[in-house]
Amino acid sequence: MMEKYFTDKGLGGTEGWLRSFEPMKQFFIRKGWLSKGMRYVSQKPDVFTNRDDNPMDVLGIGANMVKSLRYWLQAVGLTKEPKTGKKNQSLTPFGNIVHEKDPYTEELGTLYLLHYKLVTDEEMAPSWYYFFNKFAMKEFSKDDFVAQIQNELKMDGTAVAIRSLTYDLLALLIHMCQGISLIQTRFLQRIILIVHLENLGLLIS
């Protein structure tokens, strides 16, 4: 049931970091991220948590990108973290195979498996799980998706901010539309900007 996703503590002690919506900090999977993540986790399991070695300096990315990469590695099944104790990451059996056989995640079969892992993990990626396993509409708007998943959550007694659900949907659309044209990509990016401005109260419709 979805209410369990809001009970654990994650990065920096934030309530529900691992089991919540919009945990990618508005950063989608970028080229080379998964490869870099697997390499560093295999060499330095505490790469995301070591206070002596700043993760931003080690990984060469910003603070929110560090949180995002930490999430995505787990969401696609490449790494795992213990529920209690030190939050050191380790490669999963699947992650070990990918790291050894396809470290740059270039093979189509690898990409298929990463996608499968993502959309079947109700704990780490609840919005993705809902979209691909329960959401039945073939034509829909942002509001349709948000309304339906909110109804699902209400049955579990859980409340999630509309903003988080919206960002989850936009992240999903960006990932699923990797092959679309530049014009279409820019259109989606404008939608994201508009939604962000609306959420900040800077845009009045």
Give descriptors for this structure:
205 residues, mainly alpha, disordered N terminus
Strands, total number: 2
Mean of residue pLDDT? 78
Radius of gyration: 17 Å
Give me the secondary-structure category.
Answer: mainly alpha
Strand order of the largest sheet: 1-2
Beta content comes to under 5%
Tally of DSSP helical segments: 9
Measured between the Cα atoms of the first and last residue, the distance is: 36 Å
Description of the molecule:
This protein has 205 residues and is an all-alpha fold. The chain is 51% helix and 2% strand. A two-stranded antiparallel ribbon has the order 1-2.
Structure summarized in a few sentences:
The protein is mostly helical. It has nine helices and two strands; from the N terminus they run H-H-H-E-E-H-H-H-H-H-H.
List strands and helices in order, with pairings:
Elements: H1 33-43, H2 55-59, H3 63-75, E1 79-80, E2 90-91, H4 93-101, H5 108-119, H6 126-133, H7 142-155, H8 162-176, H9 182-199
Antiparallel strand pairs: 1-2
